[in-house]
Amino acid sequence: MTQSYFATVARGLEEIAAEELKTLGAENIQTVFTGIHFTGDQELLYRVNLWSRLIFRVLVPIAEIECKNSDQLYKNIQSIDWREYLSPKDNLAVHCTGTNYNLNHTHYTALGIKNAIIDQQREQTGIRSSVDINHPDLQINAHIENDRCSLSLDSSGGSLHRRGYHRAMGVAPLKETLAAALLELAQWTPELPFLDPCCGSGTLPIEATLKSLDIAPGLYRSGFGFQKWRDFAPELWKKVLNEAKQRQKFSLDAPIYGSDADRETLEEAKSNAAFCQIEEYIQFSRKQISQIEAPCDRGIIICNPPYGKRLGNTQELGLLYKQLGDVFKQQFKGWTAYILTGNKELGKQVGLRTSRRIAVMNGSLPCTLLKYELY
């Protein structure tokens, strides 16, 4: 049966996420701000959660109701038969976004929705679901816009950027979904050598390796929200899982390198790669920027050096950016380099002419992905 779905995604990544959904088999794709509407069957829902490298969550819309005020919201929430989705033995959580004139506090709106549901349960059975905001059996997402409330179920059970391998984390780690997006924006493909000279806890080389080996990123997660749902189809899920495991490759088309000057940070990167059982595929090394040399005659460099918002001093960092530019120019002729930065002045310190500037959000920080063709 075909169902409508909604994928949430970071601002600015809607189009590349829509392309990813298309490759996974989604239909009727329509992008909106920080999201994508699409349709498909239950198997597609499972496959998108398992395979998407770019999106945060897959929501399943179940109703849209009027909500001019809290009384109307309560009444219309109770008009839905929640037995279809929830047993009193299950626990739940309600997450709310958006406001209107009367419903202007998301926490209290979520509380009102929860109360309407458990009051219905009490009337029907005499018992009610408990609340578990961390590991609910059913997470309900409510979005208020004007006088309408859109209700959805969160099939992902937590943001998909949390692959599960970040057991060891640096001070300001790159989100896995953003790292995967940078690979797409840089048009990196597995037949090109890849290098991150500021690899930190290893997110970029790990994401590159997962893509190169055709490993589904969801394989490392402990579970998904839909696995607790009343309509969960274990055999269908087993089929999707087995197909993913059979697709995995066991050799790279081109080498993948990650280096960092800090010994402890590099150990974190190796630990994260080991959790994914891909440590043998990534050539990690401890190197200062000045020590880096091109391992071959062409490839892609992507790096996310500190830019003063979270780490480092901007004056000291200016020297780092200048050093990156010098090393790229002297050692990496024939390569293409990308630097993600949230500091325009630091970007100027690279001293190389950019061939492209791509606006990217790193969490709430507006950043730019700077492209350099190295001749």
From TrEMBL:
Single GO MF annotation: rRNA (guanine-N7-)-methyltransferase activity
Residue ranges of the TM segments: none
Residue intervals of the THUMP domain: 44-155
Domain of life: Bacteria
CDD domains, per database record: THUMP_AdoMetMT (cd11715)
Listed Gene3D superfamilies: 3.30.2130.30, Vaccinia Virus protein VP39 (3.40.50.150)
S-adenosyl-L-methionine among keywords: no
Record keywords: Methyltransferase, RNA-binding, Transferase
InterPro entries: DNA_methylase_N6_adenine_CS, RlmKL-like_Mtase, RlmL_1st, SAM-dependent_MTases_sf, THUMP_dom
Keyword Transferase listed: yes
PANTHER family xrefs: RIBOSOMAL RNA LARGE SUBUNIT METHYLTRANSFERASE K/L (PTHR47313), RIBOSOMAL RNA LARGE SUBUNIT METHYLTRANSFERASE K_L (PTHR47313:SF1)
Protein name as catalogued: RNA methyltransferase
Organism: Aphanothece hegewaldii CCALA 016
